[in-house]
Amino acid sequence: VERHGQVLRATVEASAAGTHRLAGADGGHRYHGTVRIDDPLAPLPVDGDWTLTLEREGAEPVTGPLGSWTEHDELFSGSGTYTTDIDVDAARLDGRRVLLDLGDVRDVAEVSVNGTALPPLLWAPFVADVTGHLGAGRNTLRVRVANTLSNERKKPLPSGLLGPVTLRFRRRTTVELRRV
Would you say domain 47-164 falls under CATH 2.60.120.260? Predict the structure, then answer.
């Protein structure tokens, strides 16, 4: 936020189209402003099939919709990697911040996009900033998930990437807030 006389100039990030009203205060004065976002910023579901590979000897990859790996191995505790490809057109990326929302994860996740590892996601919300890592066209997403020892101790809990997984788009803009 920058102050220019009786005007505050703020950079904001919109997650939806429409008219957004903003308010602020500085030095006991109140400021109001409005910004119009015409960009639809529609989310892009990453649905369809994913390939799951559990990190244990003899594990065979399984391809299908997202879900708990306890459906395949009820007593497995450890890590598994979910992989899928997604096509993104250039217009969706242009001038936007892009977030990968993993939805429900049991229990921690590491994301890589096109081979680039991102910081681990240790708690909800499981959202990674993938701006600059996605390219126009085909992209490979890998999500490595680790669960607790509960399953191994014969107390099975849902484990893995449960989703839904969604790409969410944001648009940065500058808004002027005038003193009222």
Answer: yes
